[in-house]
Every structure is written in C-alpha cells, then in structure tokens.
Amino acid sequence: MKFTRHVEWWMDYNVGARERTARFAFGSVLLVVAIWALYAYFAELWTATQTTVAIVAATAMLLSGVLFVTGQTQKCPVNEAIGRNSYR
Q: What is the pLDDT, as a whole number, of residue 40?
C-alpha cells in the first residue's frame, strides 16, 4: 500500500510581474548601498560613527535579501496580511 502525503503551502502567490521587477530593482539598489556601506566601514571613509555605518549596511543587506526572496518566490507575507494580490 502506497501512502502519499499532500502538503499545501501556507501561502499562495501574491507578487505579480511588475511588483516582482520592482522588488528586484529596489533590492539591487539596496545591495549596492550595503556594499558601499561595508566598504566605507572597513576603509573608514564615512564621517559618521562606525556604529551608524554598520547599522546602515546591515539594514540594507537585510532588506535587500527580503526583497530578493519575496520577488523570487512571488510570496510576500505583508501582502498576505493586508489582503493584497498583484499576481492575478
């Protein structure tokens, strides 16, 4: 006897083509900002405190990663929470 298990994903697609492109574009910009901030952190180019530079770099990297992942998977928890669906 063969048992099969049906697993449903907890979220449907809710990120459409235009929003996906915008996520990749904005994520790319944030990635460039993060790389620049890391460079400025290690080269001590920025006049702000090193803590500020590190916070900017970490935040930009985190947001960039979130945008890339949600754009690639076409599933966004925020869109799900507010009932928005641009995938249709």
A: 85
